[in-house]
Amino acid sequence: MFIRGDHVELVVGGRLDVRSAADARTVLHSAVDDGVGDLVLDLSELDSWDATGLGVIMGAHRRAGRCGRRLVLRGVPPQMQRLLVATRLHRILAIEGGIGVESLPRV
């Protein structure tokens, strides 16, 4: 897993899972704490995430809200869009361009 960027936009790539969760949490919390306005997470280079990785995203979302910021997801890969829909988190998280639920393939 890698994260590059600053307190305004971060690109997350690789696998966001139990092995990388602690490092990702540290970087995301620092980015939230050090900036103002929207924090954009570009997930277009993310290969996969597990429940722990999704928990890291939700934790950053909650922290951003407490800091008066908004976490915005950009470039969410289709398989991760399906997970957000299945867990109904697409209704809570800000997703740039939204998710076309009708266009997602059924699993």
Q: Would you write up a description of this structure?
A:
The protein is α/β, with parallel strands linked by helices. The chain has a single domain, classed as 2-Layer Sandwich (Transcription Regulator spoIIAA), CATH 3.30.750.24. 36% of the residues lie in helices and 29% in strands. A 5-stranded mixed beta sheet has the order 1-2-3-4-5, covered by helices on one side. Strand 4 (70-74), helix 3 (78-86) and strand 5 (94-95) form a beta-alpha-beta unit. The longest helix has 16 residues, at 51-66. It is globular, with a radius of gyration of 13 Å. The mean pLDDT is 91.
Q: Would you spell out the secondary-structure blueprint of this structure?
A:
Blueprint: E1 2-5, E2 9-16, H1 21-34, E3 38-49, H2 51-66, E4 70-74, H3 78-86, E5 94-95
Parallel strand pairs: 2-3, 3-4, 4-5
Antiparallel strand pairs: 1-2
Helix pairs in contact: 1-2
